[in-house]
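hey can u check if this looks right to u? its 326 residues, i copy pasted from the old doc so theres a chance i mangled smth
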Amino acid sequence: MRDLLIDRIGFRFRRYKARYKMQDSGFRIKKIVHRASCIMHRSQCLLLLFLFMLPMNLFADEGIIEKDITYTVVKGDYGGMIEGKIGLEWSHIASSNQIKYDAPLAIGQKLNIKFRRIIPPHIDNGIVINIPDRTLYRFSEGKLKDYYFIAAGKSTWQTPLGEFTIKNKAKDPTWYVPPSIQKEMEDSGQDVIVEISPGPENPLGEYWIQLSIKGIGLHGTNAPQSIYKFRSHGCMRLRPEVAEFLFKDVAVGTRGVIIYEPVKAAKDSNGRIVIEVYKDFYKKRINYDEKIKEKLKELNALEKVDWNKVKEAIEKKDGLVRDVSL
């Protein structure tokens, strides 16, 4: 394998064939406990946004976000919508609250959620987007600053991987429909649309953040229920309030990288070995046994895990953080 060391933009990572492996990943995240109630009007949605921006302190040998969340069901909520707000599959949220997957939800109903997420390899300053966990992470001076959930490209319209720079931004963008999507419309028997003006029918929402990767951007959406899913034609959708915040907060010229890491591993605050495994959504023929051994070797933990627990995590591929220590 040929290593490509990239230093010019403050990244410390190597690329092995089509995947990225970061260096200098010894940062840690302290547990944060919060309780959130988000209702449909703007001020409460901004409260939900704020909760994902809380400062995160560091301590030794830990790279895990941990939050105890109490979520209050609001009008219009259902499992798929809540997934995009919390960043966990509805099946897990429902089972952990002892409710049926398809049970109706009552306005005001409380959902108790333990959110855990292993942070992917970090960069000094900028953005890391990990496709399998559908999360955008921002780093400042080597520390996690905040994180947000995205909708990524479908398996047939994959979000491209690699480095990028924020090239420009636009408020109330017009969507000029790419020829490839026009063809998809034609092939499916739909009316072919060439462009969509700003407004509620525009799938880009109110804010567009253009990446240096051709044709790819971060943007709002008129389908917030699609967040935390694989639904786009390659771009990355954000909840409207997140798109507005990042539009104002992310400077043109900011560097970043889109990675594909379906396997993550870390030590928790007690020195326990935990792993997080996702499905290979883009069918990249991931060798999970090899990937997990690679991650555990980096932690010097190959002899410290219960391989039956590791096997279970690989079989489930549910994105939950699992303790696999002996």
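The radius of gyration is 20 Å.
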